[in-house]
Amino acid sequence: MIKAGIIGATGYAGGELVRILACRRDVEIVWYGSRSYIDQRYADIYRNMFRIVDAKCLDDNIEELAGQADVIFTATPQGFCASVMNEEILSKTKVIDLSADFRIKDVGTYEKWYGIKHGSPQFIEEAVYGLCEVNREKIKNARLTANPGCYTTCSILTAYPLAKEGIIDMRSLIIDAKSGASGAGRGAKTPNLFCEINENMKAYGVAAHRHTPEIEEQLGYASGEETVINFTPHLVPMNRGILVTEYAALKKKVTSEEIKGIYDKYYKEETFIRVMEEGVYPETKWVEGSNYVDIGFKIDTRTNRIIMMGAIDNLVKGAAGQAVQNMNLMFGLAEDEGLKLIPVFP
Fold it and tell me: What is the CA radius of gyration of the chain?
């Protein structure tokens, strides 16, 4: 039995972790951490957990939790995990951080884009970037895993095979991304009110979104080249989902069959990546509630560019599902354990 603790259990990603882990017989959640709801019953906050979770919320004392849990999930704002991380914690338990604190290897880049000082840079090099389909073997031996976010997961996996094979110009990549409102978190913010989001679409973080360097870094590792992207996220009036449409110049003439062959080379055996047939393109509806990534593409011979498309559920593969996938690898379990979630429709 794996004893798991969740700090930030009442946020959307934390709530999704509870939903996934509560269904497992080999995992016991021993700590529902929430600074905002200490001593309140978890099921009073999320009533979908009525008669499923009987525990009360605790605080965010990660040092105390480290003595009780085999794994700690930190579904917290940027800066929290880095501010509390130390060797004593990592000597007692494994940590899967859902924030960006340990995703970027250059501390200066992190501090520039996130506008905060890193609290424990000594652990950045050790932390494994938890994109399971790319870093599976490293994750198996990790003490500290940096769980990628939703935009980055979808953006990287959609372009990764073509970057790896040197098919696309890594300075020409444009990523147009759309996210449901849950990606903005559960905090009360005026731009996220119903009247602000409903019947509306808007770009934000234009040419300045903090996931930009993370995508560039990971695709740079894949391609072996300096990678510079234009990344523009948009908020759309739906609860869940990420859809990315990516454009890049082709380095050479290729056929659709060749591109499909490259995707299959990397993803054919991947449980959670589904490469669409030619002429079929991903939709957020077909991955909702699941840990799947759907990927499609179209070659534009007129412009010598390729259009790549990817869709995920931002709270599952983009957060909690991927974190559980990482946990499975870290504990030597089947990677899809507890994640055989069929997409919800309608």
Answer: 20
CA distance 66 to 89: 6
Of 138-147, 190-199, 208-217, where does mean pLDDT reach its minimum? 190-199
User: Left, alpha or beta for 107 (phi > 0: left; psi -120 to 50: alpha)?
Assistant: alpha
> Distance (Å, rounded) from C-alpha 300 to C-alpha 30?
52
Q: Cβ distance 57 to 10 under 8 Å?
A: yes
Instruction: Please tell me what DSSP assigns to residue 342.
Output: P
Residue 273 and residue 157 in contact, taking contact as beta carbons nearer than 8 Å: yes
Domains of the chain (ranges; CATH) run 2-126 (3.40.50.720), 151-314 (3.30.360.10)
List 43's β-bridge partners, or say none: none
User: What is this structure's pTM?
Assistant: 0.97
Exposure class string for 262-299: b at 16+ Cβ within 10 A, else e: bbeebbeeebbbbbbeeeebbebebbbbbbbbbbbbeb
> In this structure, are residues 213 and 103 in contact, taking their beta carbons and an 8 Å threshold?
no
Question: Would you tell me how many other CB atoms lie within 10 Å of the CB of residue 180?
Answer: 23
Q: Are 264 and 275 in contact (CB under 8 A)?
A: yes
Q: Could you tell me if 219 and 172 are in contact, meaning their C-beta atoms sit under 8 angstroms apart?
A: no
Catalytic amino acids? 150
Both structure tokens of 237: 């009036």
How many CA atoms does the CB half-sphere of 148 hold within 13 Å? 29
* pLDDT value at residue 191: 85
Q: What is the largest CA-CA distance in the chain?
A: 62
pLDDT at 156 over 90: yes
CB atoms closer than 10 angstroms to residue 1: 9
